[in-house]
Amino acid sequence: MSKSAQRESAEYWKKRLFRNSFTYRGERRWVSGWCIKVQHGGERRTLRLPAESRELAATEAASVYAKLRRGGWTAVEAWKARDLGQENAPAAPWVGVRKYVSNLHPGFERELFAEILHDGAREQIALGTEDPALGLVRGTTIQSEVRRVGWKAVQASRSREVTVAVFWQGNPMTCTYTTLLSVPEVDRRTPRSEPRSGTGWNVLVVEPDGPVRRAMLRGLAAAEGLASARGCASPPEMPAGWNWDLALINRNLGPGALRFLERGRPARNESGAWILEHGLYADSDAIFASVSGVSRGYFLRRLPPAKLLEPLLKTFLEGPRRNRSDEERLVRRYFQNALEPVDAVAEPPGPSFSKRETQVLDLLGRGFSDKEIGNELGISVWTVHSHLKRIFGKYGVRTRTEAVVRHLQK
What we know:
Layout: H1 3-6, H2 10-14, E1 21-24, E2 27-30, E3 34-40, E4 43-49, H3 54-77, E5 94-97, E6 112-118, E7 121-126, H4 132-149, H5 151-157, E8 161-170, E9 173-181, E10 201-206, H6 210-220, E11 226-232, E12 246-250, H7 255-263, E13 274-281, H8 284-290, E14 298-302, H9 310-313, H10 324-339, H11 355-365, H12 370-377, H13 381-395, H14 400-408
Parallel strand pairs: 9-14, 10-11, 10-12, 12-13
Antiparallel strand pairs: 1-2, 3-4, 5-6, 6-7, 8-9, 8-13
Helix pairs in contact: 4-5, 11-13, 11-14, 12-13
């Protein structure tokens, strides 16, 4: 029997089903339902299966794989919704609470989000309700809207989850990141942009995505040490006559935009004002996957939106100093201190790993992909996945990024 035929059998998938887990108040809990990892056309995804029992989930997984082989990812996206009982209807979107952004909309403590997959992109869209039934209706409506008018129009009119990362150093790579809720054009509330005091930092946000730019400004508006924050879509659109101390520029704008910004850098000190690059990502794993060539390790720190620039703003509350080297030295110290345990004596012993698991962790920390790890160690990519699953369980984490950070902290 060929490998493809084997993968269309329920017995094959029965051994590869897994459940996601999360940690709540120190207790590990399992998410209901089963998942599978599927690779096709150079793309690898994790798919949720509605079935509760392992046997039904295995049968469902075999059916999904058969659809994938014959119709590609488009066929999977059009996978029929069981509740509707229609063969050609798209599956109802996943609706649930997102951990880091569910409380960012005023008036909601646990706002529901819909996970929408279309045209190779996956977005988490805010639904403006805490009611599951209404959330499912709204999620299905938005899913139809995306298919009808495309992502660009929906992103401009709907709040969506986005992870913003600021890169402080290249090697070792140090990064602070936060999860935001984009502010669409229809939301007329604007963040504070005028100076709040005579001291503090003036921050410029150069971000072409308008809803995300507004979200970044809104988050920074409450930052400790901030005097004012303004934004623009590109360097040529910078506010005229305004001297900024720190600029965040989207790294995808390219070297030309960065050079333009550098030419207009205010001469605040001997090295001029700060310029840092930022990026937009689906989650922390995507941040980790976006960088390569790092030999001295990674440090990614999640912070609330108002503390995204904490390494600099909190250290120098009254604004920039004359000597830029002092600022750079203390920023490095910030990340070094974050790695030091508060009480080394009280630190519990870490988990033990096999030689192979340690090798996988070391390569993961060097930025290797799963396939590259397999090639380096002479094992299959599925064996790599098995090692990663055990590593996640021992560390009590859910992502590659968290596992690497824990490994680097040892």
